[in-house]
Specification:
It is built from seven helices and ten strands. By secondary structure, the chain is an alpha+beta fold. Strand 1, helix 6 and strand 2 form a beta-alpha-beta unit.
């Protein structure tokens, strides 16, 4: 499972996937009016159903496919897919395609972002597996290094958690990837 989760930042941050099949446009429309972490959390929670056993698409590491489900208005997704959608939505809302650079860059007046993707054990599963759950941890939001007043903010639509991030609240937590803005005002990942 850990290997699969590593692709979350890559998928959420993929310029070529964001640039194809109107993905950027659909994400901007879906997250229209969202500006704060709570706005993005609420939009995903209101519009996406949790897929307890079977999602509408299986291991979907192709952003346009996830986005088309959202556009259809009936998406059941796993935690990994919800977190990818949320992170990609932030990128879509706060960046634009630069023809000269051939990549997405932050919009004028927007600060830096830094997201950590953490896995942990989902104890709600019939057979809890060590790295069976994924949540997004916000370290920096639009230049604010204390998002919503917290040192780090956990955004977890799957578990309905929007709170200060504390690794000790999770069972077997581990960081699997990072998505951030670079000095060139573009999103990067580790």
């Amino acid at each position: 499972m850990k290997y699969i989760l590593r692709g979350t930042a890559d998928t959420a941050n993929s310029d070529w996937q964001m640039h194809m099949f109107r993905t950027h446009e659909i994400l901007r429309k879906f997250f229209e009016g969202c500006y704060t972490p709570k706005d993005f959390y609420d939009r995903v929670n209101e519009c996406i159903e949790d897929a307890k056993f079977f999602p509408d698409i299986w291991i979907a590491y192709f952003l346009p496919r996830l986005v088309y489900l959202v556009e259809d208005g009936h998406a059941r997704m796993w935690c990994t897919q919800q977190v990818m959608l949320l992170a990609a939505g932030v990128k879509a809302v706060f960046s634009h395609w630069d023809e000269k650079l051939q990549r997405y860059v932050l919009n004028e007046g927007i600060g830096d972002f830094r997201f950590e993707f953490w896995d942990s054990c989902d104890e709600t599963m019939l057979i809890p597996i060590r790295s069976s759950h994924l949540q997004l941890v916000v370290d920096t939001w639009n230049g604010d290094t204390m998002p919503m007043g917290y040192e780090k903010l956990e955004i977890d639509p799957w578990m309905n958690q929007f709170r200060e991030w504390k690794p000790e609240n999770e069972k077997h937590p581990g960081i699997v990837s990072i998505m951030y803005t670079s000095e060139e005002n573009e999103f990067g990942r580790n």
